[in-house]
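Thread: quick sanity check before group meeting

JM: Hey all, I'm pulling together slides for Thursday and realized we never actually wrote out the predicted structure for the chain we discussed last week. Dropping the sequence here so it's in one place. If anyone has concerns about the input, flag it before I start.
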Amino acid sequence: MEPWGDRVAVVTGGGGGIGRAIAGRIVEAGGSVIIGDLNRDRGVEAVRGLGDRARFVPVDVADESDVEALMTAAVDSFGRLDALFNNAAIGGAFGPIVEQTVEAWDTTFAVNVRSVFLGTKHAARLMIEQGDGGAIVNTASVAGQSGGGGPQAYSATKAAVINLTQTTAAELAPHHIRVNAVCPGAIYTELMHRGRPEMADEWREEIQPWPERGEPEMIADVAMWLASDAARFVTGASVTADGGLMAAAPRLVDLDLAHLRRMTGIAYGNTGQEPEVRRL
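JM (edit): ok, ran it. Output follows.
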């Protein structure tokens, strides 16, 4: 892994899954990290094993003052900010479109898209002030690249993240700030298996050609490369890391997510909030 030297990063949604794997990779490479997460217990647990180069800051990524404070914490704790990983997200609203509520839809967009806007806004401000560039890596999804990769709201938010990656990459390039996205496929996290770890091999065999299941560390490695000097001429890109899922045409909605047609509500991911479900 490329050494990070004294570089400092912020990882949202760093209490578990892909975010936690990214935070671990940063410390392994010699860098320092601020982990932001709504779930305090998970955030504290995540930094416990990372030593004095990691800090936890509780954050609601849909709240501007929280996000600004999160970015400032990097400077206050470690003196600067070199990279931001906009990783926090929830599964969000699900069910037939005619049954979904405006509140569930808006919450999904607030957590999955507004957070990327706010993170980019306040990280870029600090990076511009520092004057020596930086890197922003957004966690998008294959769900944002097609109509069959996830529920409607989630897929729409990830498509928005992909486009926001492109527009901000063009805007921030003169400041030597690179903005890229990684688009995971089916990755073995709690957000994917939803408390049913045994389902992993079932959906892997059905939806992707690659024989090994996707692990958070696999996505962390791609994200770290995008933030590294090895990708210094890469900006505005969305890198798909999905074990060939898209190459084989995604059928997540038809296979793994078909049961969502029989219910509606909202899933809050790893935030600690219980999902709201209404069966149809």
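AS: nice. The chain has a mean pLDDT of 90. The first strand starts at residue 8 and ends at 12.
JM: adding both to the slides.
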